[in-house]
Give the backbone structure.
Amino acid sequence: MKILTVALNTFREAIRDRILYLLLFFAAIGIAFSRFLALLTVGDRVKIIKDVGLASISLFGMLMAILIGTGLVYKEIDKKTIFTLMAKPIHRYQFLLGKYLGLVFTLAVMIGLMSFIFLALIFAHTLTIEWKLLIAILFIFIELCVITAVAILFSCFSTPILSSLYSLAFYLIGHLSWGMETLIAKTKPGWGKTLLKIIYTFLPDLENFNFKTEVVHNLPIPGNIYWHSFLYGFFYSLFLLALAMLIFHRKDFV
Amino acid sequence: MSRKSSIYTAMALVSLVIFMGLKLKLDQIPRQKVPGSSIIYLPSGKYLKYATFGYSSMLADLIYIWAIQYYCNYNIPDRFQYLEHIFSIISVLDPHYLDPYELGSMIAIYEAHDAQLAFRLLEMGFEKNPQEWIFPYIAGHYAQMFLKDYQLARKYYKQALTIKGSPPILKRLYAHATYRLGDYQTAWQNWLQIYQESQDERIKKIALNHLYLVKSAMDKEKVETALRRFREKFGYFPQQLEDLVHQGFLKEIPKDLDGRDYVYHKEEGTISAPRSPWKR
């Protein structure tokens, strides 16, 4: 209940943030721009709209998660409001989880709005609602949940600017880590290879949430990947939140 | 360490083990990928796909759109130099995007007048999308129309015909390429099969016209060979075609598919069909 109260307050706080609307505005522009970009192509215009639309949702969603998430906890500490909060009968983990869920809820609303614009644009072209696109959007949302957890983690011990940079680095690593497969394949068996494998499995692999290409091209997606990807996102977020709780628990607010 | 800290640490460790296990499991689930598509280089030698951060499909769109504008600019004299490279990059970024292969091959054949380049782009598309009949179909069309290489055209049409969902016109194109190759017997069998199998009156009419054309070609070949042999023996072409039968060069004078006599051109020693196959 206390988590929910903090979550609702975080949601109220987040939706008052001007940067959210600025990003939503640019996301809408990005999605709408795909229509004009499609005019320049030869062949399947809808493909361009789908690609640019999904990329806009993912990119601007990521910016929302990072730019708002990194300030959530830091602002409370910076403005000293954390002292008032900690004086109330609320556990620190409840406060953190509330902050996290509040931002996740905000992102869900924003993703919903962007998806509506996107699907409406697709509908205007094909006169059908392509539900399969929602799979890609759902996994973009799960990816954003992981990014939000990262932002909250860094927000516990760093300034918003540094936290944004760290979170952005996490995002980039998450989309580049698959390249380590090549390095592992070329490394001779031994300690080095084992170490690389451990690093590889530890580093985030955000490509596990990337179904954009499969959905746009209507390619078959193995059924068991959905659950595995979802659970991967869930436990990665849990790991990051547990670290955040551990750090936040050790902070001295007295 | 306090109790809460221990709980959080345990939670982090358990989550760590679980997500690392899931990561290993996820790597074992095969996702549709194209061999060799994971590594591509730009002229600068940079790893392009790494730079896309998961937006490879959108980057492919942007390069494709840029390429269209680039190849529409006739003021760039050597713009075809990097055609293959540009469209190869698009194909690596988004191997299942079909339009670039088609457009790239079109630019290669119509603008650059480089049929081999067009074939390479289409084969690249086919290699990455083996379920798409459109690539061998277009390649066959280019081989037939631009190179007049009916053997090659037949090879591509045959390839396209083996793919599920290929359109019926491919059988007709294959049969016509066979006819143009001079293999009249096979062409006759192909067209006859099309005629017998089709339920569409329009297709039947087309097949019948082609059967007329093939039979005329076969008869022309047979009669003109006999005419040449007649002249070799007597020093002149016969007054009438019946003389070929009287002198034992032919068993009978063939008639066209409608039962009409062929027109005999005595001076040239040739025959022609009494009417156009398309105006019967």
